[in-house]
Please model this.
Amino acid sequence: MDAALAQPGPRATPERRPAWWRVPFLLLGFVALFAGAGAGLARLGYTMPGTIAGVAVLHGPLMICGFFGVVIALERAVAIGRAWAYAAPALAGLGSAFALHGSAAIASGCYLAGSIVLLIASLDVWRRQRALFTFTIALAAACWTAGVAAWAGGASVHAVVPWWLAFLILTIAGERLELSRFMPPSPRAQQVFGALLALVVLAMLASARWPWALRAYGVGLLSLAGWLFKQDIARRTVRQSGLTRFIAVCLLSGYVWLTVGGAVIAAAGALQPGTPAYDAALHALLLGFVFSMVFGHAPIIFPSVLRVAVPYHAGFYAPLGLLHLSLLLRLAGDAGAGFALTRSGALLGAVALLAFVVATASAVWRGRLATAKA
Model:
């Protein structure tokens, strides 16, 4: 997620609501994050509290709809400055609450309602600023709605995973495209970007009838990674220092995992649950790519959403390093080195997420102390 989304063109109305008003939404998102991470560990045989173990089957919905849905929807609400847009993170957070209380059917309905509000908000941004990046972000929101609608209608989670992955990946790609105004892609490069969007969406639509079409989906993600590597300003900013370099390192390492995830899907030609390819592709994309973006932009997101300072510290690299190490272990286990490595990688991944939360909270505390002393 990117702070660029907090200012996608002119606001509909000035955002005058106090920052504390947004805290409950963010807390709901982090509840889903921790519950989802615990549910994932429970699926691998780790002992978890009864409530968490009871929602092990909802690991994916809690992480994607419950955490990322809330965070992205909250950013969008701040961006457009309209009270009704906050219904999206509220509904997504409420969905997680129902999920944790064993009401999966009601949870899916709440997630669906929240996704629809996010889609309306995204279309509102696109209406006010017609650009390829705002269209991409709106398309991403539509992918979330399509996936949740299918899930609420009875489809299995693994059947809608490509739509949910597209929601996150296209959101990030759209945000990075918006920031490319500092190093604008050529008209030809923008045409290629549009063609890749079409390939990803058409492949998802076709896979409902022809499962082999997911191979094209993987090729689309792999190609998108190549496009981002070439066009992103991070290739230059990584030569700088401090927070600027840290963000660039997060971005470039995230693109490596997007490449890996796309390549695994393209090679496997399917996303069959329970297979090593399924585990490797999903975690390369969701942990490796998406969370690398989250880690990199937390020092920008929190100030824009909560109006708190998050001063950079070199310790920010520790959670990022743990995240990448956890994925190397997990994918090594998926590749045949043993299930023990997969489990160890999953546990280390959860530790990386916890370390990220602690590092961010510590930075906020340091920022408050610095402000108090000033």
Notes: The chain has 14 helices and no strands. The mean pLDDT is 90. Residues 339-373 form the longest helix (35 residues). The CA atoms of residues 91 and 113 lie 7 Å apart.
